[in-house]
Every structure is written in structure tokens, then in C-alpha cells.
Amino acid sequence: MTTSPVRITAEPVLGDPVTAGSTTVQRLRAVVVRRPVMALTLAAVVFVGVCLAFWPPAKEQYDLRVYVAAAQAVLDGRDIYTAHEGIYGLLGYTYPPFAAILMAPLGLLSTGGGRILMTVVNALVLLLIGSLTVRALRPRWSTRHVLVTGFILGAAGLALEPVRITFHYGQINLMLMAILMIDLLGHLPQRFRGVLIGVATGIKLTPGIFIIYLLVTRRYREALTASAATAGTMVLGFVVMPESAWKFWSSYIFDPTRPGSSTLVTNQALRGVIDRLSGGPQGIGPVWIAAVLITLIVGFVTVRRAYDRGLLLESILLAATIGVLVSPISWTAHWVWAFPATALLWNRVAASYRTTGRSRQFAVRAGLAAFVTLTFGIGLPWLAPHMRDRELHHHGFQLYLGNSYMICGVVMLLAAAYSLRRRSLKV
How much is the pLDDT for 44? Predict the structure, then answer.
């Protein structure tokens, strides 16, 4: 007579936090697997709600007020560049006329309604950028896996100061980055690639750095399309508001002080750093031009090498870094490209650990990723004395804090240039 072995199974203990936690995770996973659209929609709604809680309609979004004033001027047929006059504490509109045309619907909303709309759109766009980044890093993953991970990554983007300050001021930096990534990463049909780059350039000019990127990477057809799209935005501006368009393209575009003082600590472009170190913008033109030329040459040589090796996302992020460095004004909010760059750096850290363990390569990459994450996560420039020209008197460690985004950008650029210095090296 034989007896069958007794199988002992552990029964879940009521109230056991470990069991309850694992059960909750399993249930959530089951919902995502069985009903991914519902789960992702619910996640997006929750994230939007969180963002609205942090940046409610009653919270002033300063740049949004500028957009709304310009939008109302478009609808009323007034000059968008004088729309701020008579409104206490409001700076003038600084974008090309085409941007004001696109923003015209904001003029139909109240300021509170505009704030809600801007926060909701920025929240959804942040989730989109997270998904685009994950797709670029993991091209073989399923769509569901990409979206789930991308939503998590997008929500984590709020940990970075450039992203938070974009929400705080109600700016369009995330939207521009999203449409640029859609175009540059090849998510448009071939014949339309370059169009969104041209549109983004027509909105804010600085995305024009990616037209140079297309030329450097020999994507000439896309560069031509982007240039034509940019020209189209200019023509539309002249058709809708000829007087304002003439003022912008003949005068305002050549005035780098219109967005604000270049010496403010929030200007983390090369120009801002040089201005602060020199005690002001007077007489620094030759030094700044030399710094810009060196950055463009070293940067785009590195971009070309990255692109030739099939490192598409890396080449795009390097071009974005060049753009914020050489622009006369790059407020901390303009450094939103640090978000996908940080994700890329930590992805490299994980890859190094899988292939080489705790090697020297792993340590270097982990150090760089931590340096970038902490710099942009804390928002180091804000820790330096600022406002009332205190930026002009930094000394010691304050010099690092007050220029830390620029330093971080240069370090990333030089690190990439070093790792790609010979075609035979692996990155």
C-alpha cells in the first residue's frame, strides 16, 4: 500500500501586508493585460489629476498670461507685441507671429480655463514623451509594454526641475519637444518628415538647430521639407498680421534682451554664463561667438559619429544639448531635454551592469547619470544667489551652482565626444 505525498500549501494570511501587496500587484497586472486601453486611460486621468492638484487654476502661470494676452490680440486684430502694455507686471510677447496664430484659441478662454488646458495638455504630452523615449530605447517591445513603461517614465519626469518649471509657468517646451521627437524618431510617413521640425521652428526659432542636424546627418530631403515648412509659417504670419510680422522679422528677432536679462541665473546658455562671469553683456560678443563656434564644431562632429553608428536617440539629444548651449537665452525650463537624456543615461548604466558587472565602465556611466539626475532634479541654479544682480557677484561654489546646467550640458557633450572619438570604439 502506498501513500501519496501530502502537498502543503501556504494559505494567505488575512491582513498580511506582503500577501496583500503581491495580490494587489497581480490584480493590477491582470487589468493591464486584459484591458490595456482602460488601464492606460485611467492612469492618464489619475496623472492629469495629480498635475492639476499641484498646479491648480488659481496658481499663476506667468508665461501663459503672456500667451493669452497675445491670443486675445490676434482675435481683436491688435499688435501682439504691444498687447502687454497696460497690464501690470506682464512682459511682452517674444515668439514669431505664427505661434500667436496657433495660440489664438486661448483668447476665447478665461485665464483660469487657459491654466487648466495648459496643465492637462502638458501632463498628457509628458506621458507621450515618456512613451516615445521608451520606444526609442526598446524598439522590439510590444506597444502595450512600451506604453505602460512610458507612462511610468513620463510621471517620473516630474522629478526634474525643467519639467516642473514648465508646468509652473505654463510654457510650451514639452509640446515642442514632443512634436520634434515624433518627427526626428521617424514616426511620420517618409514624405512628411521634416514638417513638424519646420512647424516647431516657426513657433519658437530655437528648434531650427534640428534643421542643421538634418543637414549634418545627410537627411537632405527632410532638411528641405523642414526649411519649406518654416518658410510657410513665416508667410502665414505676414498674411494674417503683416505689421506685427514685419516688426518681428526686421527688428525684434535681432534683440536678445526682449525675453529678459541675459545675466539672470535662470539663463543657462553659454551667453548667460559668459555675461555673468564678465559682469554684464557689454563687450563679450567675440568670446561668446568663439564659444558658440567651438560648441557647434565639436558638437556636430559628435552628432554625426553617433548617427553613423545607428545611435539615433543619442544623436538627437546631443543636437538638443547644442541648441540650448548656443542659444542666447536658455531658461532652465528650456532644458526639458534633460528628461529623455536622463532616461538614456540610466539605460546605459543598466546595459553596462548586464554586460560587464561592476566594472570601471559601469562606475563612470553611473556617476555621469547620477550627476545629471541630481543637477536637474534639484534644480541647482536656483540654489545660487539670484535676482537684483547678485548673479554678477558669485564666488567659490556659487559659481558652480549658478552655472550648473551649462556645465552639465558641456560635460555630457564632451563625454559623448570622448566615447565616440574613434569609430572602432564601442559605446
Answer: 92
